[in-house]
Every structure is written in C-alpha cells, then in structure tokens.
C-alpha cells in the first residue's frame, strides 16, 4: 500500500471547481481551517508535513512556516503572494509557487468590463430599470462618457497590465503606463511620475502587485490629478488605493467614477461607495470563470506534484 504524501491545507479552496476533492484523492491532507486553535493544531500535527497548499487570501505567515519543521514547499492557488512571508520561507529554504499567466486574460477582460460599465453608467442604468423608473420619471440617467479614442493609463505593466493595455488598441486608445522602471519591450509611453500619468489619463487602471510597497500608492494627490471626469479601475489589490481618499474625492466631485473589484478591507465596503451613483462594485471576481479557476487549480496541483516527484516547482516565485 502506497502512503500518500502528507500536506497541510490552510483553508478550503471553495472558489475552485474541484481542488478540495483532488487534493484529498492524492494526498494525506491536514485541514488546518477545521481546527479552532491553530497554534495547538500546528504543534500537535505539524511534524512530517512537507508541503502547504494555500491561496493569496489565506496566505502563509512566518508563524505557520516556522511551526512546520519539515516544510519544503508552499503551493499557492492564485497569482498574488503578498500574504505569504517570502523572507521567512527563503530563510528556511522553503520553495514557493503561484499560478501566473492562466488568469491574465480573464482579469484583463474584467478590467475592461469595469471600465466600460463605469464610463457608460451601466450599474446605475441597471438599477434604474429594475426600480421601474424607466418611463416613470422625466428624462433618463445622466449621460456617460465615451471610451473609444480616450487616454488609458495603466499602473503596473506586468502580465495583466500588458493584457489590459493591448485591449486598448481595439478601442483606438493612446496608452501610457507607470512602473517601477521603464520597459524596453513594449510600445507604450512610460510615465515616471504617477501623478503625471493620472493628470494625462482619462482612465486609470490599477494592475500592480499588492503588499506593503504599494499600499496607498494611489493616494489623494493621484486621485485628484485624475480629476472630476476621470475614471479609476482597480483589479489588483484593494490597499493599493487609499480608500478614504477615494471616497472623499467621489463625495466632493473631485473624481468622476470608481469601478472596483477589490477593496481595502474585504469583504467590508464603505457605505459611501455603496450609496454612490458614481461607482461600480464587484466582489473580487477577477479570475472567477470556470475555465480560469480550473486552470489555476490544475497549475497549483501540477506544482505540488512536481515538488513530490522532483523537488522542483513548475512556476516558482523568484
């Protein structure tokens, strides 16, 4: 009888089509989320666990990493890894993988959906019709703004940022971007100053990584530079935008619209954003299509299997 490799699963991967079952089929899974006293559970059951399965939401902090004396690999479901303590992992010689590329197109598609929905007031129009107000009141919803031919600014020109920028070609948009450094392999204009990019742009899409280095990168000055007709879209991480500054700018008419898939304190969303007619709000669904979630699941499992077969990961975090 073959003994299954022992792994720890930080939390249920309920957003994935079949990940929980597939993990249970192939591995001896310790389900950490089912234990109320996490520290005690790790103390009692941590020995012999060589791999951890987690996600960007659940993460893997230094306490978890250091509580597992035999840990060698962390395989994360999702592209973001700011909630995984990479330094603690490296200090222990623990390998870390994520699932890049497979979700790029769906997240970029959603960014464009948010952009168009914000510009054309689709959420407001939907509420207007559902409330039975169409034909019952004088006039219609306020006019929106055209998307085609406008100026698109992208914050963070990684895989997803580039996919968003490429879609701008089909809308005859001029595209510029802000990055930690200029890229020589893209045809778009580079703005070293984020404020200058916001001042220039009609639409500003946040596609940068999360974590302490980018927290409140989009601050009051950037938001107000985008201006009363500007539209900001965030499909990255909520804390990249100073949410209080964003809310204040919308309330004071200093920003035209915020179209958001992520928030600073998820799942909490400020009432001011919920009540505003100048917002489009989604529950963090950038990768939430069957095709993409299954591809993320497959790649996470491929990383896990690769570690147990060869000691290497398919998509390691460098």
Question: Which secondary-structure class do the elements indicate?
Answer: alpha/beta
Sheet with the most strands: spatial strand order? 8-7-6-9-10-11-12
Strand segment count? 12
CATH architecture group name of the largest domain: 3-Layer(aba) Sandwich
Radius of gyration: 22 Å
How many angstroms does the end-to-end distance come to? 37 Å
Oligomeric state of shown chains: single chain
Number of domains: 2
Question: Which regions have little confidence, pLDDT < 50, spanning 5+ residues?
Answer: none
- Our count of helices gives 12
User: The CATH topology of the largest domain, please?
Assistant: Rossmann fold
**CATH class categorisation of the largest domain:** Alpha Beta
| Superfamily (CATH H level) name of the largest domain | NAD(P)-binding Rossmann-like Domain
Q: Mean pLDDT, as a whole number?
A: 96
Overall 3D geometry? Answer: elongated
The largest pleated sheet is described as: 7 strands, parallel
**SSE string:** EHEHEHEHEHHEHEEHEHEHEHEH
Task: Please estimate the helix content.
Answer: 25-40%
> What share of residues are in beta strands?
15-25%
């Amino acid at each position: 009888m073959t003994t299954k490799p022992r792994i720890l699963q930080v939390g249920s991967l309920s957003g994935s089509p079949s990940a929980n079952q597939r993990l249970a089929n192939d591995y001896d899974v310790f389900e950490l989320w089912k234990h109320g006293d996490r520290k005690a559970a790790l103390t009692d059951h941590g020995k012999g666990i060589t791999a951890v399965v987690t996600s960007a939401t659940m993460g893997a902090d230094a306490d978890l990493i250091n509580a597992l004396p035999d840990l060698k690999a962390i395989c994360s479901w999702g592209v973001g890894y700011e909630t995984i303590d990479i330094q603690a992992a490296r200090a222990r010689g623990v390998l870390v993988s994520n699932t890049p590329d497979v979700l790029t197109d769906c997240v970029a598609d959603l960014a464009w959906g948010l952009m168009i929905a914000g510009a054309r007031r689709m959420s407001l129009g939907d509420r207007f019709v559902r409330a039975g107000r169409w034909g019952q009141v004088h006039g219609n919803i306020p006019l929106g703004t055209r998307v085609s031919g406008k100026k698109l600014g992208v914050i963070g020109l990684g895989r997803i940022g580039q996919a968003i920028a490429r879609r701008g070609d089909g809308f005859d948009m001029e595209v510029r971007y802000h990055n930690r450094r200029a890229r020589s392999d893209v045809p778009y204009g580079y703005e070293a100053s984020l404020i200058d990019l916001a001042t220039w742009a009609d639409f500003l899409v946040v596609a940068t990584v999360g974590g302490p280095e980018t927290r409140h990168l989009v601050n009051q000055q950037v938001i107000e530079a985008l201006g009363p007709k500007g539209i900001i879209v965030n499909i990255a991480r909520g804390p990249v935008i100073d949410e209080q500054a964003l809310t204040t700018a919308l309330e004071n008419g200093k920003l035209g619209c915020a179209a958001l898939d992520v928030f600073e304190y998820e799942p909490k969303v400020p009432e001011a954003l919920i009540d505003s007619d100048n917002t489009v709000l989604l529950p963090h669904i950038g990768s939430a299509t069957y095709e993409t979630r299954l591809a993320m699941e497959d790649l996470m499992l491929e990383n896990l299997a690769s570690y147990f077969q060869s000691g290497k990961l398919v998509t390691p975090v460098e």
